[in-house]
Design a protein that fits this description.
Blueprint: H1 4-18, H2 22-45, E1 49-59, E2 62-72, E3 78-88, E4 93-96
Length: about 100
C-alpha cells in the first residue's frame, strides 16, 4: 500500500527543486514510491541485514533520485549494494539499473 501523503510531499519537493510542472512532479513521485516499494521487497527477501537508500542528485541539466539497497552482514559490515535504478525528476520516468 502506498502512502499518498508521502507521495504528495515528495511531489511538492520535486516541483520546488526541479522547477517542473505539478503533473511531472506527481509522475516522478509515483515512480519513486514504486521504486522504493521494489527496493523494500528486495531488502525483505535478503537473508542479511538490509537498508534502503534514496539519494537525490542534481548537476547541470540533470535532476535524479537514485534508489538502492545496501546489504550488510550480521556484524553490520558492508556486503554489497544492489542498485534498483533512478527516477528522472525532470521527466517523471523511472530507469531501471
Amino acid at each position: 500500500m502506498y502512502n499518498r501523503h508521502e507521495i504528495m510531499t515528495n511531489a511538492w519537493n520535486i516541483r520546488r527543486t526541479a522547477g517542473v510542472s505539478m503533473s511531472v512532479a506527481l509522475k516522478a513521485a509515483w515512480a519513486l514510491a514504486k521504486a522504493i516499494n521494489k527496493a523494500e521487497e528486495v531488502a525483505a527477501s535478503s537473508s542479511w541485514n538490509a537498508k534502503v537508500r534514496v539519494n537525490d542528485w542534481a548537476k547541470g541539466k540533470y535532476n535524479r533520485t537514485y534508489v538502492e539497497v545496501a546489504i550488510y552482514t550480521n556484524a553490520w559490515n558492508r556486503k554489497g549494494t544492489e542498485k534498483i535504478g533512478y527516477v528522472d525528476n525532470l521527466t517523471g520516468t523511472f530507469v531501471a539499473a
